[in-house]
Amino acid sequence: MKAASTPAQTPLGPLLSLVGTMIVWGFVATGIKLLLPYFSLDALNGWRLLLASGLFVLTLLILRSWPRLTPRQYLHIGLVSFLGTTAFQITFVNGVANSPAGLATLVSSVNPVWVALFGLVAGERLSGLRWLGIGLSVLGMGLMSLKTLDASSGVTLVGLAWLLSSNLVWALYTVLQRPLLRFVSPLQFNGLGYALGSLPYLIFGFPAMLEATTQPIPAAAWLGLAAVGILGQYLGFVGFSRGVQAVGPTRAAVFLNLIPIVGLTVAFVVLGEPITWLTVLATAVTLAGVSLANSR
Questions:
Q1: What is the pLDDT of residue 6?
Q2: pLDDT at position 1
Q3: CA neighbor of 109 nearest in space, from 243, 250, 290
């Protein structure tokens, strides 16, 4: 008698890549918070983008994976990637500068909700569960905004506005990149995207980047900046792309819920940011909403 077939198991490597990426991304906001006393926003963003861009381009050249595209396709990738590099970094780092690091990681997890709403605008029908998820996510953000009433919490409306703006920008970037992945691989898109999308910011931020090299900044701060840029932006995107290719975007998105859990824990341990009952409640409600909003 022939044994019943069993579904193919996902290789352990891609799953570990996803978990590792979520842990790294959970550290990023705290890392940025620790670096802000030493670098201006423009210098911090500029050096991080330059490191990630250079490593991505170098990877494409070493692997001989540089795609042959038309000028129009290069322009299209550059314009879309401007959202995911320059626009996102400006809004996100300003959000971190004006908010607790733990809050920044929590707000970042709401990306699937924005993606679902963009799908609605594009004509996609949303199920009742996804609408419930959107509602719970809004409620979670509303609960977190109550912390603005406590001046000692560090949560401000300005910080929330910057973080939600970064979330909106990233969701738009996520939606607009999908058609581009028909003619380039995720690695090619990330490599070209970082190089082309960050170019305007590198030109704009070059004076601040240059000025940082003349300041008495400790070597440990430069090493921290390199770690945030290389681990968070380069290896993080490589690991996430590997996971998405192995398990698909829907299953990979579930792992994103680990980011705020790691982020809140790291911010509590490293920065001493308190985790109150309101933080726990808002996080639980938000993550439940994100999970439902990302369901099919």
A1: 40
A2: 45
A3: 290
Read off the amino acid at residue 127. S
The tens digit of pLDDT for each residue in 151-169 reads 777 888 898 899 889 888 8
Positions in the chain short of pLDDT 70: 1-11, 121-124, 241, 244-245, 247-254, 294-296
The reported pLDDT for the residue numbered 249 is: 60
Give the chain as a 3 state SS string.
CCCCCCCCCCCHHHHHHHHHHHHHHHHHHHHHHHHCCCCCHHHHHHHHHHHHHHHHHHHHHHCCCCCCCCHHHHHHHHHHHHHHHHHHHHHHHHHHHCCCHHHHHHHHCCHHHHHHHHHHHCCCCCCHHHHHHHHHHHHHHHHHHHHHHCHHHCCCHHHHHHHHHHHHHHHHHHHHHHHHHHCCCHHHHHHHHHHHHCHHHHHHHHHHHHHHCCCCCCHHHHHHHHHHHHHHHHHHHHHHHHHHHHHCHHHHHHHHHHHHHHHHHHHHHHHCCCCCHHHHHHHHHHHHHHHHHCCC
Which amino acid is present at 243? G
Q: Give the position of tokens 């995107």.
A: 237
